[in-house]
Amino acid sequence: IGALLSSRRLMVPPNQRAYAWGEAQVSDLLNDIELAMRQKDDQDYFLGTVVLVETGEDLPQIADGQQRTATVSIILARIRDVLSEIGREKSSQSVDQRFISEIEMRSE
């Protein structure tokens, strides 16, 4: 998802449900990621499928994987904020620029 977020902007279509993950789902995701990080024998981690639909418009739409993608984006935003709070401003800006923010050239 990090590669996906850093490579392009995505759009959530209007027919997708609103963000609905609660503490239990986020905790499960974080625990799963932590477990994967502890297993040093395998460098790959399967977070789940993200299905994108090209509609002919500028941005691909997320058909499946919206909750995971949004949650990872929220986690990255929190990492950015914590890095800034502890004085790691360059690292904070790097996370923001690489995964979260992108200037839309037409509208800035």
Structural class: mainly alpha
Mean pLDDT equals: 84
Radius of gyration computed on alpha carbons? 15 Å
Order of helices and strands: HHEEHH
Shape: globular
Helix content: 40-55%
Number of helices: 4
Unreliable spans are none
Strand order of the largest sheet: 1-2
Brief overview, please?
The protein has 108 residues and is mostly helical. It contains four helices and two strands; from the N terminus they run ααββαα.
Describe the 3D structure.
This protein is mainly α. Helices cover 50% and strands 6% of the residues. It contains four helices and two strands; from the N terminus they run ααββαα. The protein has helices at 2-7, 23-38, 66-85, 89-100; strands spanning 51-53, 61-64. Strands 1-2 form a two-stranded antiparallel sheet. It is globular. The protein starts with a helix and ends in an 8-residue tail after the last helix. 6% of the residues are buried. The model has no long low-confidence stretch (mean pLDDT 84).
Keywords:
108 residues; mainly alpha; two-stranded antiparallel ribbon; 4 helices; 2 strands; 6% strand; globular
Helices and strands in order:
Blueprint (H helix, E strand, L loop, with lengths): L1 H6 L15 H16 L12 E3 L7 E4 L1 H20 L3 H12 L8
